[in-house]
Design a protein that fits this description.
The complex is a heterodimer of chains A (875) and B (1093). Chain A is of the alpha+beta class. Chain A has five domains: 13-153, no CATH class; 169-178 and 189-220 and 227-235 and 329-354 and 728-802, no CATH class; 237-322, no CATH class; 370-556, no CATH class; 568-721 and 808-867, no CATH class. Chain A has a 17-stranded mixed β-sheet that branches. In chain A, 46% of the residues are buried. By secondary structure, chain B is of the alpha/beta class. Chain B contains 37 helices and 30 strands. In chain B, helix 29 (811-839) crosses helix 30 and helix 35 (1009-1031) crosses helix 36. The longest helix of chain B is centred in the middle third of the chain and has 36 residues, at 642-677. Chain B is globular, with a radius of gyration of 30 Å. The chains are: A alpha+beta (875), B alpha/beta (1093). At the A-B interface, helix 20 of A face strand 24 and helix 29 of B.
């Protein structure tokens, strides 16, 4: 059995809230406020509304309790009997505070005009108290649903209750009590026990706190909501730059959590900083006006010392003296603590049990075997395969030669071949080396001219994949930046050029030569004709990056061996389809481009076969031809075009377009075979309502238009969302007392059947880091961050501590197959991955689709058009 | 409106008064007291609107038939009857039997029993006709001129050369008595199904095959009747109203037709079998002869495949080229082959290898002497003369045999429009050479079987609603008037003086009027006014119907003050049309350029003068603009609002142009026979379009009550060179013609009622304007095999990410969309082919039919498919049959990389094309009467049918418009004891509906609901027929609709919601139950399609 951090919570235990009803007069007054247009999404203009988030923060600040203003009513729920509301909070707000806050806010919104229309109306209103449970609908059918604001406030009472008792952590003879402080958003912080660590090179100091977030989640077919506790280890900034959130301690009250902005200063302040942070949305002004106190944000030197009353959250991923993650031991302790603390009403933890005693299997691991090469090449849909190696430095060539040597007849000896010819490694596998010194160019290169001589290679009938050396320095030195000698990252342009030629590519980062040699670059680059020494044996130590690069290239080419068919028998030659959807900003450069989104849609189909001799072929849909192309061609076709489809979106008309598009794509698959469709739950559920827990078995699903003439079309929804899938705590099948660390989940397919009989499937795992790499990530199993013995602090505190993760499957349509068969198939497609030795988060077809998306030159970057226009201006 | 040239056409001037007098007498007999309206009703032919009609004594029915027989088409128009009665009674007094009072009442003066009076009058007419009957003279020795067409590859208009013939003394044939047509007595026809099955069993035994009995017994087992539920063992085909036998495609109707042939011989009942096309005729006749052979009966002279002698040779050529059956080829050669004796006597101006087969000048030999001397001064042109060999010529053998054969097999077209070219004697009447095939069949055959009767109705509609381009910017193609002009010049001196003069007048005045008109349109002198600004927004092209008279009331109202010459009546804004405007008659006189100016009130003369000047060819060039300005100035004080004045001026000018133009159209109609005889190809084309209206019909005018002309103008604001004016004509009443063929038409043709049996798979679909036969089926075979039909929508994404749609686009955008649709469709088709290959047995149902709307779009789709990756060799594209002739021969050895071509009339050959997997053909060609069978089986070769482009009939097409009107008026039609009032009601309904149709915006979604439903019903019918292609042999049929326009729900014009509307409508009218009985399986498939989208 597997326990999790999610707890089914009786509705009666949700507690009650205080609501300020929305009277007609207030509504009228509200609408007369000068609004501002905060966003404009394409042509669809949102209605104007005043910036009331600041008022909510301020009210939270002055009352010390969470406040939700103008809660939207959820459109699916029929709540005619409930009056609309202005505000929702836990306890009634002191009328004097309320008046003062609202009036100040109104004055600020009106740019100094003290009209005071709202506050009197608000004070006149009759405050009402509601049981939160009264807002829940559909509970009996196992599809509970509530208004949108409900999900924000329903966790408050739970958090409050949890905060009453400190969490006792003990390990290695050390024991600490973590006391919890609630913030104005309802999260809990271990404010009084920040963790400090410092590194010597570079010399830095870092602080972090434990935080607990709470989230109301639904479980498929479950009548009760569940509260999912999400523990995080939040690191604190030691400088204001780029930060976005500040927490302010104001005595006994809740921590004030405020968004911050930054203003340039005319003259540098005492810290020498030319920027000053300020609380956004008028919050500070309102709080001050309410006569409580001045809000002073800590200075940069405060932050360095963790002094002052405020702490600032680290704005983004960066090098830091403290790692991320709370560790599995903390999670276990937290789980115990929750069960100990929250006794009434009775909560029940969400648990999963193994489906059967049969473990998930991974019969084949490691690199593609030489004996399977022919099979794998056959799977690409081509007869012959060429690996085109573009390199600049001889050492990279050597590394690749070494990595590919295993496919020759003498795997222990390096390949001997000249550049510029197709060298046959084995059977139908060829390699072709080219030295391209331009890879080192610090400037952007017109690759179509530079690589023009290669074009004949791209025109023959061999399938070509490129393995390209790259020089990547995330942070060029100041000297390099100023001298403009920083290596240019050619990956995007080069990849795009190769896509235009129909070639997929994989990059291999140049390894810095060992310090001892100190060979100047120039000498190394002269060695194009310099063959590797015949007498030299390949180094004992494996060059993992090079091996993995070649593995990835095979994966991209669709050259996969029989490991998937061997591990996952699929009946009736079904086609496995992965639907990958992602919303991306249209452009970060054009005006308003950032607000406009478009949908990236990649559909991958794996044509399974019942014949062990014929490989599974992977194809991807290409909208340009309305056809499913072999993997390599399809990736190139996808990468050539601009990313995303305009007008496609997650809701309304945009969602309809996505549905039409996907249906059209599915129609282009062979019509006589059964389909098994995998979708990512988070990305797809607004598009196909049938994937939503509240509309299970009712709404639209992908493949609906094909579901005719008894064609079997199964839909499996895969949820990998960290917040939504209950976090695994430990495997209780093992005796806890005997273990050093919380027991890992096993390679079972776990399941849970809800009170209304809906089964959810679950696979959970420790990460590869947790298990491997000398146990670097495993420290969190033995210790918690707070109780780490002094001897281990230096070593472990700066590491990321991994917890267990899980993926949840839901069979939305079984297409006539047993649910269990589909769940096992899905789990197996994650467990036995096609190209590496660990699990993938998504089943293979979905994993491929996402990989195709990620390889697009515009993936999370500026659009191709912009690059083109840049290129034009370039010489 | 009175019709010019009326007297000229009706032959003897004594006939019309007598026809009218007998109409009055019969009106007196049936509806005392007689009035003009009642008399008109009797001559209108719409007798079925009368509730007592079918119960009248046989005597009366015959009398009414005789009346119609002598009544010429123009008399079907009420106004004409009124005018003529007025003229004959109060004018020249040639009608003395009745007096007319001013209320339209007729007062009998004859003092006899009205029936006896009518009989006497009709007898008199018979005598007059007998006395004036004349045959075309047979050419004696001498010199003759004729034009011959030279065969030409492709669809170019064949060049015409003048042939000079010299006939010698010995160029005569033996004198042979003309064949005699005997009218058979009226009998009820009973077809005992057991006998049919027995006959079929005999044939099976004789031929060694076994499928006929099994097919028929299966067919008869499923048979249901309107009266008896089941089983039906006798088909009692009553004479009178048409009996419809409805059975799904592939259920064995054609086998039944075939067995009916030998049944007729055995029962000694002459039978006519009417099939859609010549190829069907040949096949059916041959099969019947084979059956008779098998029975030991010599079929010579018993079965006759009757087609137009002029197309006989072409058909023979087709058979020789493509029919795989050697027996059939030999048989056809024997039946249709002939040699023409004339070429030996001919010399031509240019070297000519051969005459266009079938176009020999058999009846158009013009004496060469007419150029000289006395003949030229003769008032009447010398009649064309007949080839002396005609009486024995093989070309007319089938027509001779048709007079005595037991089984006449002919086509829809020949039945409806064909003539017997040789002189024949009908009963005891004088010999005639103008006998219509329809009359021959009616007289001889107690039973007429019409295959695909709904298609027959549609065919009739097609020949009754026609259009013609009058002028078209700077284009030279498709300008029959221009060609006629040129040819007329070529024929200078060859034509008889009077005819030549008439032709020149008509052609040149039509040309002048229409070309001046479009010039004015193009330069903006005429044009939609700026007054309604919204109408011109975003509309680069404007196409609209113009009916000049429609504006009369409006104009008279707006010009109220001017007409009254009273400034006190002046108003400043547009007035609602006043139907009772006192100035309407005056206004008509004002704009009628034939009315003398002096006849107009003084104050109107200046405007009258301007309006007459504008259509006067002798005005200084370019003056239309000046005249417009003149009118504008003239009206300035009377119509003060500037925009309104512009509109008034514009409409006045158009009215001035189009009125005379309309009159020249009537000239074409009535002179069509004479023009056709002139031997000028393009004049013949014009006559073909406008001519049919002069052929006698029992019901000459439909609900509109008269022959109508309407003009369409196309204005392209960006391309003035494309400005176009065309005219459309609407006449006849095809819907009623089909249902009353055995009664009204039969009585008029032969004095008896006849049994007419119509066969079809889709004859009943209330609302379908073209194919719904307005009578409930008498027998039907329910289509009950659930799950065998599947309708699915499979849109393909276009390059812009939206689902591609072609329907609704035009020009270059449409071509682009079609190409890209083809390209993106290929993966789906490829998958489908794979599936079919895996699932089907080899050879059957392993191919696809991709249906489109036109030949051009077929080519574009093929091109797109090839772009998408299809092997060109696997595609077979239908091309226009005429285009095929040019490439014929190359395609037999077509290489892999070329798309194979197949002429549109030979799609049945598709399975025999090596490697061809996808047939791309226009819907209209592929939907009907087409058996695309897997080689050597009776099973369809087509596995699924993909409809690429949504077909939307253009409401602009005259035949569509006619069909809409006809069916709409009949939808709520009922019989009545006062049928003239019912006619009046239909006329009103038709008038309103017509107005609604021609004035609406030209988009599908803006059409009236009933029209949209009609179009959807037609589409359903068309798809039911189409899916029949795949279901032949009992295989399942799958329809895939590709065009996104099918389901695009904008404006509620998508197919699903239209089908739902149709279902509601059928349920409301009570037709749904029968519909589900008839088309259960297919209809359910459509309903579930509609419900699921």
């Amino acid at each position: 059995m597997l326990t999790t951090l999610a707890y089914l919570f009786p509705h009666s235990g949700l507690g009650s809230v205080t609501a300020y009803p929305l009277s007609r007069e207030f509504s009228a007054a509200w609408q007369r406020l000068p609004g501002y247009q905060d966003t404009e999404n394409g042509s669809k203009k949102r209605f104007k509304r005043p910036p009331y988030a600041g008022l909510a923060s301020a009210l939270s600040a002055v009352t010390g309790q969470p406040v939700v203003l103008m809660p939207d009513t959820y459109h699916n729920v029929d709540i005619d009997d409930i009056t609309p509301m202005v505000a929702i909070t836990t306890d009634p707000i002191d009328p004097r505070l309320l008046t003062s806050a609202v009036r100040t806010w109104e004055r600020l919104v009106r740019k100094g005009d003290d009209t005071n229309t709202l506050a009197p109306l608000l004070n006149e209103a009759d405050i009402e108290r509601y049981e939160l449970a009264s807002f829940v609908r559909g509970s009996k059918e196992g599809k509970p649903i509530a208004p949108g604001w409900f999900y924000r406030v329903a966790t408050w009472s739970f958090a409050q209750r949890l905060a009453r008792k400190p969490l006792t952590l003990s390990s290695g003879g050390k024991s600490v009590n973590l006391a919890w402080r609630m913030d104005t958003q309802g999260s809990l912080w271990s404010w009084d026990l920040p963790i400090r660590n410092e590194t010597l090179r570079p010399k830095r100091v870092g602080y972090a706190m434990h935080k607990l977030d709470f989230r109301i989640i639904t479980l498929p077919g479950e009548s009760q909501f569940a509260i999912h506790v999400i523990p995080t280890f939040t690191r604190l900034a030691t400088h204001w730059a780029k930060t976005r959130t500040v927490l302010l301690d104001r005595g006994k009250q809740a921590l004030l959590r405020l968004p911050v902005g930054h203003r340039p200063l005319d003259t540098p302040d005492e810290d020498g900083s030319t920027w000053r942070a300020y609380p956004r949305n008028f919050t500070a002004e309102i709080v001050q006006e309410c006569g409580l106190e001045l809000i002073n944000l800590p200075s940069n030197s405060d932050l360095r010392m963790l002094g002052g009353t405020g702490r600032v959250l680290l704005p983004g991923p960066q090098e830091y003296p403290i790692g991320k993650g709370v560790g599995t031991r903390f999670v276990t302790a937290l789980s115990d603590h929750i069960m100990d603390t929250v006794k009434r009403p009775r909560i029940s933890p969400v648990e999963y049990t193994p489906d059967s005693k049969k473990k998930l299997t991974r019969p084949v691991t490691g690199q593609l075997q030489t004996k399977d090469l022919e099979y794998a090449i056959h799977a690409t849909g081509h007869d012959r395969l060429r690996i085109l190696v573009l390199y600049s430095e001889g050492s990279t060539r050597k590394r690749i030669i070494a990595a590919l040597a295993r496919y020759t007849s003498s795997p222990r000896r390096p390949v001997e071949c000249t550049d510029r010819t197709d060298y046959r490694l084995h059977g139908n596998l060829y390699v072709h080396f080219r030295r391209v010194p331009a890879i080192d160019s610090p400037k952007s290169i017109a690759w179509n001219e530079e690589l023009a001589p290669l074009r004949t290679l791209f025109r023959d009938d061999m399938l070509t994949g490129a393995l390209v050396e790259t020089v990547w320095i995330p942070k060029p030195t100041k000297k390099q930046r100023e001298g403009k000698t920083a290596p240019h990252d050619h990956k995007r342009e080069l990849r795009r050029y190769l896509y235009n030629e129909g070639i997929v590519s994989q990059f291999l980062n140049r390894k810095n030569p060992p310090d001892s040699k100190k060979t100047p670059h120039t000498e190394a680059s002269d060695s194009t004709t310099d063959l590797p020494g015949e007498d030299k044996e390949i180094q004992e130590e494996k060059d993992h990056p090079a091996i993995n690069a070649s593995r990835d290239l095979f994966f991209r080419l669709g050259a996969i061996d029989h490991r998937l068919p061997a591990a996952t028998p699929v009946k009736e030659g079904a086609i496995l389809v992965g639907i990958h959807l992602r919303q991306q900003r249209k452009s970060t450069r054009s005006p308003r481009g950032a607000a406009q989104t478009q949908m990236v849609e990649v559909l991958t189909a794996v044509h399974t076969s019942t014949d062990p001799e014929s490989p599974w072929r992977t194809t991807t849909y290409s909208p340009a031809t309305n056809d499913w192309l072999p993997q390599a061609e399809a990736e190139a076709a996808f990468g050539r075009g601009t990313i995303g489809l305009e007008g496609h979106a997650r809701h309304d008309e945009g969602a309809r377009k996505v549905r039409d598009h996907v249906e059209a794509a599915l129609r282009a698959l062979p019509t006589a075979r059964p389909l098994i469709i995998f979708v990512d739950a988070e990305a797809c559920r607004t598009i196909w309502p049938g994937l939503q827990h509240q509309a299970l078995g009712q709404g639209a699903l992908p493949g609906d238009s094909l579901r005719r003439n008894n064609r079997s079309i199964a839909v499996v929804s895969v949820n990998t969302s960290y917040g939504e899938v209950p976090t695994p705590v430990e495997n209780t099948a093992r005796n806890r007392a005997k273990l050093k660390r919380p027991a890992k989940p096993q390679d079972y397919l776990y399941r849970r059947t809800s009170s209304t009989g809906v089964t959810t499937w679950y696979i959970a795992q420790a990460s590869r880091t947790y298990d491997g790499f000398g146990g670097e990530g495993r420290a969190g199993g033995l210790h918690t961050r707070a109780t780490l013995p002094e001897s281990d602090r230096r070593l472990h505190l700066k590491k990321d501590w991994h917890s267990f993760t899980a993926v949840q499957f839901l069979v939305a349509a079984c297409g006539g197959r047993p649910e269990e068969e589909l769940a096992t198939l899905t789990a197996q497609l994650c467990h036995q991955s096609a190209a590496w030795d660990w699990r993938t988060r998504h089943p293979y077809p979905l994993h491929v689709a996402a990989a195709v998306d990620r390889a697009h030159p515009e993936y999370r970057g500026p659009s191709l058009d912009e690059i083109k226009s840049d290129e034009k201006s370039a010489p | 409106m009175s019709v010019d040239g009326f007297e000229e056409n009706s032959g003897d001037h004594r006939i019309v008064p007598r026809v009218l007098a007998s109409a009055c007498a019969l009106a007196e007999a049936h509806f005392p007291p007689p009035t003009v309206a009642k008399a008109h009703f009797l001559v209108s032919g719409e007798l079925h609107a009368w509730d007592r009609y079918h119960r009248l004594p046989e005597e009366d029915l015959r009398r009414l038939g005789r009346l119609l027989r002598h009544r010429d088409n123009p008399l079907g128009h009420e106004k004409t009857v009124e005018d003529e009665l007025e003229r004959f009674i109060n004018g020249d007094g040639s009608l003395c039997q009745y007096a007319l009072d001013d209320q339209g009442r007729l007062l009998p003066l004859h003092g006899m029993d009205p029936r006896a009076c009518a009989d006497e009058l009709l007898d008199e007419i018979d005598r007059i006709r007998a006395g004036s009957a004349s045959l075309r003279p047979v050419a004696g020795p001498g010199h003759y001129v004729s034009t011959v067409r030279v065969p030409q590859a492709g669809d170019q208009v064949p060049p015409v050369v003048t042939a000079h013939l010299s006939l010698e003394e010995h160029h005569t044939a033996d004198a042979i008595a003309p064949p005699r047509v005997v009218t058979t007595p009226a009998t009820e026809v009973e077809i005992k199904l057991r006998e049919i099955e027995e006959l079929a069993a005999d044939h099976d035994r004789a031929s060694g095959g076994g499928h006929r009995v099994s097919t028929l017994s299966e067919l008869f087992q499923g048979l249901r009747g309107r009266k008896a539920t089941s089983p039906v063992d006798v088909l009692q085909v009553r004479s009178g109203e048409v009996s419809v036998f409805n059975a799904p495609t592939g259920s064995g109707k054609s086998v039944m037709m075939r067995v009916l042939g030998s049944w007729a011989v055995r029962e000694d009942i002459p039978v006519a079998l009417i099939a859609p096309r010549n190829s069907n005729v040949v096949k059916l006749a041959h099969e019947i002869e084979q059956d008779l052979h098998g029975q030991g009966i010599n079929p010579d002279g018993l079965v006759v495949p009757l087609m137009s002698p002029n197309s006989q040779m072409r058909e023979l050529q087709r058979i020789m080229e493509e029919e795989p059956d050697r027996d059939l080829r030999l048989w056809a050669q024997e039946k249709f082959g002939y040699g023409c004796a004339l070429p030996s006597a001919t010399s031509t101006e240019h070297e000519v290898d051969t005459w266009d087969m079938g176009q020999e000048p058999c009846t158009s030999l013009a004496p060469a002497e007419s150029m000289h001397g006395a003949a030229r001064r003769r008032k009447n042109p010398p009649p064309a003369q007949v080839c002396p060999f005609q009486v024995t010529c093989g070309k007319f053998e089938q027509q001779r045999q048709a007079c005595t054969a037991k089984v006449i097999v002919t086509t829809h077209a020949n039945f409806y429009r064909g003539r017997i070219h040789i002189p024949v004697q009908v009963d005891d009447q004088p010999v005639t050479d103008t006998l219509a095939v329809e009359e021959l069949v009616m007289r001889r055959c107690p039973l007429t079987v019409v295959d695909e009767i709904d298609d027959f109705q549609s065919h009739v509609l097609g020949s009754e609603g026609r259009g013609l381009t009058l002028a078209w910017g700077n284009h030279r193609e498709d300008r029959p008037l221009l060609a006629a002009d040129t040819e007329h010049i070529d024929a200078f001196g060859r034509l008889p003086g009077r005819l030549s003069q008439g032709l020149r007048n008509t052609i040149s005045s039509t040309r002048w009027l229409s070309e001046t008109y479009i010039t004015a349109l193009a330069d903006g002198t005429l044009g939609p006014s700026e007054r309604r600004k919204n109408r011109r927004k975003n509309r680069p092209t404007e196409k609209r119907w113009i009916m000049p008279q429609r504006w009369d009331t409006w104009l008279a109202t707006q010009l109220h003050a001017y007409m009254a010459d009273d400034p006190a009546l002046l108003v400043t804004s547009e007035q609602d049309s006043d139907a009772y405007s006192p100035h309407r008659t005056l206004f008509r006189d004002l704009v009628d350029e034939r009315k003398a100016l002096d006849g107009l009130p003084e104050h109107l003369r200046s405007l009258g003068h301007l309006l007459r000047q504008v259509v006067h060819p002798r005005q200084p060039s370019g003056d239309t603009h000046m005249i417009r300005r003149g009118i504008d100035e003239l009206l300035n004080p009377w119509v003060t609002e500037q925009r309104l004045r512009a509109e008034v001026t514009d409409r006045l000018l158009r009215r001035a142009f189009l009125g005379p133009l309309q009159r020249t159209m009537y000239q074409f109609v009535h002179s069509a026979p004479a023009f056709a005889r002139a031997g000028m190809e393009s004049v013949r084309l014009i006559a073909d379009v406008l001519g049919p209206y002069s052929a006698w019909r029992a019901i000459p005018h439909g609900p509109l009550g008269r022959l109508m002309f309407a003009f369409t103008e196309d204005i392209h604001h960006s391309r003035t060179g494309d400005t176009k004016l065309s005219v459309a004509a609407f006449g006849g009443d095809p819907h009623n013609y089909v249902t009353t063929l055995g009664s009204v038409t039969a009585y008029a043709r032969c004095g008896r009622s006849r049994a007419v049996l119509g066969l079809s798979a889709t004859a009943y679909a209330p609302g379908a304007h073209r194919h719904h036969v307005h009578v409930e089926p008498t027998w039907w075979v329910p289509d009950q095999s659930p799950g065998t039909v599947d309708v699915e929508n499979v849109p393909v994404p276009g390059p812009d990410g939206e689902m591609s749609r072609v329907s609704g686009k035009s020009g270059k955008a449409r071509i682009e969309a079609t190409l890209s649709m083809g390209e993106r469709l290929w993966p789906l088709l490829r998958n489908e082919l794979d599936v079919l290959e895996q699932s089907g047995t080899w050879g059957t149902q392993d191919r696809l039919l991709l249906a489109s709307t036109s030949y051009d779009s077929c080519r574009h789709l093929a091109e797109g498919l090839v772009r998408g990756g299809a092997k060109p060799g696997s595609l077979a594209v239908a091309i226009r049959p005429a285009e095929y002739a040019a490439t014929y021969g190359d395609s037999t050895s077509s290489p892999e990389w070329a798309v194979q071509e197949l002429p549109g009339d030979r799609l049945e050959d598709f399975p025999n094309l090596p490697g061809a997997k996808i047939l791309i053909a226009p819907l209209g060609r592929a939907e009907r009467g087409l058996n695309i069978l897997a080689p050597n089986t009776g099973v369809s070769a087509i596995g699924s049918i993909w409809v690429a482009i949504r077909p939307i009939p253009l409401v602009d097409d005259p035949d569509e418009l006619l069909a809409f009107l006809g069916s709409h008026c009949l939808a709520d039609a009922r019989t009545s004891p006062t049928p003239w009032l019912e006619l009046e009601r239909r006329k009103n309904v038709a008038g309103h509906y017509f107005e609604e149709l021609v004035t609406n915006e030209r988009y599908f979604r803006s059409l009236p609901d009933v029209t949209k439903r009609a179009i959807a019903a037609e589409l359903v019918i068309s798809l039911i027929q189409l899916v029949g292609r795949a279901r032949r042999g009992g295989t399942p049929g799958r329809i895939k609709l590709v065009d996104h326009a099918f389901v695009n729900a904008n404006g509620r014009s998508d197919l699903p919601s239209l089908i739902r509307d149709l279902r509601t409508e059928w349920a409301r009218s009570g037709a749904l139950h029968l519909m589900q009985n008839l088309y259960g399986t297919t209809l359910d498939a459509f309903f579930s399609f509609a419900d699921n989208h």
